[in-house]
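Field reference: sequence -> structure
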Amino acid sequence: MLKALIFDVDGTLADTEAVHLEAFNHAFDQVGLDWHWTREDYTRLLEISGGKERLRHHWNVVNPGMTSLEGGALTDTINRLHEFKTAYYENAVNEGAVQLRPGVLALMNEAHAQGLKLAIATTTSPVNIAALLRKAVGPDWRQMFLAVGDGSSSPVKKPHPQVYLQVLGDMAMQPADCLAFEDSANGLRAAMAAGLQTVITPSDFTAHQDFTGALRVLPDLSGVSVAQLREWLAAAPHLPAATH
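Structure field:
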């Protein structure tokens, strides 16, 4: 029986990735790095979950001979870059650069009205979540969600299921009673590893990825109702849930 909906954030709730890309390139300028990520670069980098993880991966690619003695300085640089990037992103969201994807808010409101619980399971930072939902939903956005798992509470990134396992535990619910919503292959793998059936709404940055195993792959959530979700889940096989 469907009792809860669990949403990823970036790319799923909203088309945020283009603004994240702008924010990363702004950060590079701020610290004097001659990096510039193209849309194609960032599409590839999105296969790595987590902004700091993408920065570290790129650094290792362009500086393959880095020694372990430089590790502390690298961490400091990555943290500084991420601070500039996050500040730029938050300001852009506050100025209206990002909106929720079609059908998202309507489905959330219908689910809430029918007594379903809502949750978030993302690898992004708490600041990014708050910036988006404060603008899109209002200052009391947190009251809509029974549980919020993010990059600070679940540091092991997707495709590992840690954040989904945390959210399921916080809600005290079984995966068979929940549906996950994702836009990426890493997100799908994380949700499935936690035993969750998953609805995929690809973004422009993830449309090329492999979504084998998804419950449904849809352009967006326009016209999707709770009744449809109940039917899809009832007809779906149970997935084995991770225990780690």
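Note: The chain has nine helices and six strands.
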